[in-house]
Design brief:
alpha+beta; Beta-Lactamase; Arc Repressor Mutant, subunit A; four-stranded mixed β-sheet; 17 helices; globular; disordered C terminus
């Protein structure tokens, strides 16, 4: 039997779907009872099962419905993906109407905006709340194609008993994320759901192509201006510079810091001030800084000028996207664009200051809003999972019957921080930036 060449595909060529389903069911039960994961579970599925277990997802639950008819209509009308729904229907509508598949589109939080297809198939899917307004994020309903595509920001197939929750296991689905073409912010996911026959390379390729077509269409709707270079620095130890139609340039850590600091100071910085922002009080020769800038110019071209050191064109960062959304009072957009702390392992004083300011503003807005959906999303991230104040706010925002998970987590965190059972607030001496696994 040929090996799976693409880890995002569910079945290798020649695999028996019935035999694989049985093996997966046994592996799923072994994980639920013993915590063990073995063959034939793919790594992307194993990682998703572990996330689902950490989120205390019950294996027999169905997705919660969070948006009523009025809220759903308002949210749909305002969402960027509404502009590409005609394209989704054009490319996937025939499949959705064939009596065996569903076309669905969810937002960046995993809330279903549209579910379309043959009425009989939609009625079957209603049994697991695969309906508009339901939340299909992994933290709500475990491993599933829309939720897992959001969690890993990659197109993926989920086959049969790879689904974490049993009510979803009769289905197979393929989903791909859709991004804002300018900022690369994750907007949501397009998905096709049906039977075992969807576990083929064609279904995954189809949703990937549809997502790329949607991004291209969104780009065509934007004003016809030359896009500013984009520097991605959130959740990454090494920045990505997107400065044209070619592949992005991955910068080293020091070059990432320099370009970020110059982007944050559009009027430029003197050599002395830039050295202070990079090295602090360390005694560094000016030659060292000039050498770093020379190497950066070899990567970024004429983007960097001197006397003072400055950028020759405006470079936008994903840090700017979050900061702009916060200034506009748009907390959901800010949280969706926040991919983790800014250059999390950098110790450059100027970077540390920017990192702490952004995170503090984001957390204060989140704690003040007390929106349980936004708080839940925050504490499910690597940078928010140990945030005691956020867990306290989430527990306070939920109805009494839904507080079991945050209450248990609060008890564990208070013990870890040496606080009493009724303690609150930040742990003594804790930095504002929470631990996080960097994106590579």
């Amino acid at each position: 039997m040929a090996a799976v060449l693409n880890p995002w595909l569910a079945l290798e060529t020649g695999a028996d779907p019935v035999e694989r389903t049985g093996a997966l069911r046994r592996a799923h039960e072994a994980f639920l009872t013993e915590g063990a994961i073995g063959t034939p579970v793919r790594e992307v599925i194993a990682a998703s099962w572990r996330r689902s277990a950490r989120a205390a997802v019950e294996p027999d639950r169905v997705a919660p419905v969070e948006l009523d008819e009025d809220d759903l209509a308002e949210h749909r009308a305002a969402h960027p993906l509404a502009r590409v729904m005609p394209l989704f229907r054009e490319l996937l509508g025939t499949i959705a109407e064939d009596g065996a598949h569903l076309l669905s589109v969810c937002d960046e939080h995993g809330r279903m905006l549209w579910v379309e297809g043959h009425p009989q198939v939609r009625r079957r899917a209603e049994a697991m709340n695969f309906v508009p307004g339901a939340r299909w994020a992994e933290a709500s309903v475990g491993t599933n194609a829309p939720g897992t595509a959001l969690a890993v920001d990659h197109a993926v197939q989920i086959f049969a008993a790879e689904h974490y929750c049993r009510p979803v296991q009769p289905w197979t689905c393929a989903a791909a994320p859709v991004h804002d073409p300018g900022t690369r912010r994750l907007l949501g996911v397009v998905d096709i759901t049906g039977g075992d026959h969807l576990a083929s390379p064609h279904s995954l390729a189809l949703v990937q192509a549809t997502a790329r077509a949607a991004e291209a269409h969104l780009a065509s709707l934007a004003p016809a201006t030359v896009a500013a270079p984009l520097l991605e620095v959130l959740g990454r130890d090494e920045a990505l510079l997107r400065a044209g139609p070619g592949a992005p340039v991955r910068l080293g850590r020091r070059h990432s810091e320099i370009l970020l600091l110059l982007a944050a100071h559009p009027d430029g910085l003197s050599g002395e001030r830039l050295a202070l922002e990079l090295y602090g009080d360390r005694d560094i020769s000016p030659v060292t800084l000039r050498a770093e800038l020379s190497r950066l110019r070899s990567l970024a071209g004429p983007l960097v000028a001197s006397r003072p050191y400055r950028l020759t064109v405006r470079v936008r960062t994903d840090h700017d996207t979050v900061a702009d959304a916060l200034r506009a009072g748009d907390l959901p957009t800010a949280l969706a664009a926040y991919r983790g702390p800014l250059l999390p392992t950098s110790e450059a004083p100027g970077v540390v200051r920017l990192r702490r300011l952004l995170e503090d503003r984001l957390r204060q807005a989140l704690l003040a809003r007390r929106d349980p959906l936004l708080l839940d999303g925050w504490v499910r991230t690597p940078w928010g999972e140990d945030d005691l104040q956020a867990w306290e706010a989430l527990a306070g925002a939920l109805p009494p019957g839904a507080r079991a998970v945050p209450t248990a987590r609060l008890r564990a965190l208070r013990g870890a921080y040496g606080l009493g059972p009724e303690g609150s607030g930040e742990p003594p001496g804790r930095d504002a930036t929470y631990p996080q696994r960097s994106v590579t």
